[in-house]
Amino acid sequence: MTVGDSPIRIDAEGKVDGSATYAADRAAHDALHAVVVFSDQPHARLRKLDVGPAESSPGVVAVVTAADVPVNEYGLTMFDQPVLVGLDHTGRSVVDPTVSRWEADKIAVVVAETIEQARAGAEAIEVEWEPLPVVTDIDSALTDETLVHGEVDSNAYYSLRIRKGDLDAGWAAAAVVIDGTYDLPHQEHAYLQTESANAWVDADECVVVECGGQWTWEDQQQIAHAMGIDHLSQAEIDERVRVVYAAVGGAFGGKEDMTLQIVMALAAQKVHALGLDRPVHCTWSREESIVGHHKRHRATIHARLGATADGIITAVEADVLLDAGAYNYTSNKVLGNAHLSVAGAYEIPNARIDSTAIYTNTVPGGAFRGFGGPQGAFVAESQMNKLAATLGIDPVELRRRNVVRDGSEGLTQVEMPAGVTLPAVLDECAERVGWSDPLRDAAPFRSVATLPPSADVVRGRGFACGMKNVGFSFGFPERCEAEIRLIGDPDDETPSTVELFHGAAEVGQGTHQAMIQMAADATGVDPSAVRGHFSDTSITGDSGSVSASRMTFMAGNSILGAAEEAEKAWREGARPAIGRFRYTPPPTEMLDPEDGSGQPNFCYGYMAQAVEVSVDSGTGHVRVDRVVSTHDVGRAINPRLVRGQIEGAVVQAHGYVMSENLVVADGRIQNPRFSGYLVPGIGDIPEVVDSVILELGDPNGPWGARGVAEMPYITYAPAVIAAVHDATGVWFDGFPLTPSRVLAGLQGR
Fold this sequence. Notes:
Aldehyde Oxidoreductase, domain 3; Aldehyde Oxidoreductase, domain 4; 749 residues; alpha+beta
């Protein structure tokens, strides 16, 4: 039995001894080097772009501009961004490609013999801009005095709504109302490997892009669209564009959208057209990466929560304003998750929720672990913790009275998908932390400030719970493909080797290891007999994105289907016996535009967290002493990997709530280096993380498995905020909880 074991990851040795190669390591010895030129203009109209001085600069081989882009538009969920801002065009674009709406809009790619020559060529480009008014934040965007996109009539470009029950009756039944406005910040992904790519045209005239990402198939489609060949059949596209992933080096949603993929394909094409048979390489610096890719969305959310005197929820209202930045990226989808999660994982009889995505001239918001869930859950759980304090009801008991369970009607007026295990998760978390026991003493507080800790250190404990969808939502055509080949002699009863072909990306979470184990279990061989072939559009199918906590669920089901097909062929005597399978889960629905009714998701993961903190009220420093993070994962395919996901998510969420403060002023990121953007170090993270893994089983999951990657992140911030309140009596409706913010709150209580 291999499912449920915890063998060492198949990529562990290479990542420890350095033999694993990332795109940045794989530049050929004869590679040309590329520099992507940013506009450096949050909002301006291009008036002049002269690349002649760059083209004549020493060592420069080619300069790619908008004139080289057949279809000058792209976007993961809507085409609202030019590939390159420019004046000369050979193709179409749904947006005005002469306008820079973000400081990292691209205007050119300079290709040269060396990186130094490419940078010098980029500096030689002559460019003139007509400055336009900068829409700096949500408030200024909502006036619509300046439109970020002239093609739409409002910066508030995408909205969702929920109307459930009788809201007036809900408020009339409420004995207490909690009202709050919450500010959620940006967050940088801070992955180890910055954006990097190699690109060339092979002997068959196919453009090959070797990079890191989260969905090779979608990268291929985006490149094909910009090249103007997306009208071709998939087989023809496969002959023209190939995307293959090297080791990725982390993603967390930050590599779901395009950065280098399209422009490097175009650069390779232009170099090839010049008669040069040489690859092109580009690796962004950390500063280029922080400026040049999307962030977790900042948001402002106003919410009201009504309940009876014994804590039963009667009504919820919320207004969610999500800062999409200059382009949509996945904001419409992230908005959907925030929209659903802002009321929490509770039975809500009456609700009004209005959610809006808003364009500004700032860094785009996009996919980031939790995908709108952290923003919504922070509000929902903070409201519940405030309700518990107001009513004098234990926070865990308050949740027991309200959480969804099997048979519950969800916020969108349909029954929850079967397998709702939140009540059991809630109880297990409370028991593991010893919620009913007095808070235990912690180790002496070690202040990280230059001043010694004060004598006034206080302790507190907080709680939060929630749910997060597994898989894509709102009617998206969810799917996942796998191929299995059983190798052996005609007389063999069992295969000697199993080959697995799968498009899923390995972005650090252990996906490939889990798939090897699942393929071994499904075919009845030892994992050592399984050979994996991954993330290459020339040999692997459409896996869907490694996002939405979906890949274990989706890949497992696709592997089971492919194994079944291969075993049929094996029994019929085929050698090799090949099985191909495309798994499609239960369908979801786009919500009704008037009342928000519909089935948005086919599966959820359920989580609860208890957090213990110490607060130095003299310096404002907060230390997280213990986290008990409890999750129903359905079935732990590899328990060690599940624990790694829990601990990693907690640490990443810790940075979000405690220290990471991306400063954006006048449309520009002010701290694009880790020296000014404080990701927590080993001395800053929680002292203890207890990972509690429950295996209660999902009815549709492979071996019962659900997803887990995002779940430990989502409830961490409200649990920490509740613990700080328990210690100090002060609520914080925004973060990060830097010492200065905490100290100001303590002084103003």
